[in-house]
Each structure stands twice: as C-alpha cells, then as structure tokens.
Amino acid sequence: MLRFLLNVLWFVLGGVVMGLGWWLAGLVAAITIVGLPWARACFVIGNYSFWPFGNEAVSRRELTGRMDFGTGPLGLIGNVIWFLVAGWWLAIGHLTSAVACFVTIIGIPFGIQHIKLALIALAPVGMQVVPMRR
C-alpha cells in the first residue's frame, strides 16, 4: 500500500513530466531508425520513471551473470553516444527535480529517486527494470 501511495504522489508531483521526457527521447530515437536500440531503453526507463517505487534498475550483466549485446563493448559505445546526444539532458532534468524535492522534508524520498534516475539517464543501455528484492 505504501508503494502505491508513493507512486501516485510521485506521478502527480512531477514523475509524469520526467516519464514523458523519457518517452519523447525514445520517440525521437525511434524516428531516426538508427536510434532503435536507444528507443527501447527510453521506453523501459520511461515506464520506470512513471512508477519507480517497488522497482529497481540493474545491469543485465548483474542480473544474468553474462554479457550480452547491451552490456558488452557495443553497449559501452551505445552509452557514450547516448550520453552525448540525450543522456545529459535527462540527467539535468532529474537533478533539477531532485533539488526541488529536497527543499521539502516530505520530498526527500522523491529526490533520492530522481538521483537514481539521473544516474540511469547517463547510461541506460544494458539496464533492466526489475521488481525490488527484499
């Protein structure tokens, strides 16, 4: 129940804006055709950005114990390109939102989530959103 309430508050108080930002980046990436690998990551992280509480983003390498297309050398190149094109813009959006949340005591959990999302925004390729382990 607490996760649900936190997610609803998050969504209403700004999560929708950053989630839409991720989806916009994904749409632009998809339109370019060469950006399709980044588009998928944008939509996955965008959904996570809408409802972050109760989920976490982890590297697929940590999750599966093996390298794949997104966690190997090509994933690194993809993340460098992503950072230069769009990653830092989304990270700045999350950091700005985090500062606004940290101003209030009740917003601290939201600020922490924005910091996590800002770090993901810098290198989303090779990440997977999974339910949080207890």
UniProtKB/TrEMBL annotation:
Keywords of the record: Membrane, Transmembrane, Transmembrane helix
Residue ranges of domain Inner membrane component in the record: 5-55, 77-126
Signal peptide: none
Coiled coil: none
NCBIfam families for the chain: PRK11770.1-2, PRK11770.1-3, PRK11770.1-4
One Gene Ontology cellular component: plasma membrane
Keyword Electron transport: no
InterPro entries: Inner_membrane_protein (IPR052937), UCP028777 (IPR031308), YccF (IPR005185)
Domain of life: Bacteria
Name of this chain's protein: YccF domain-containing protein
Ranges annotated as spanning the membrane: 7-25, 31-51, 72-91, 97-125
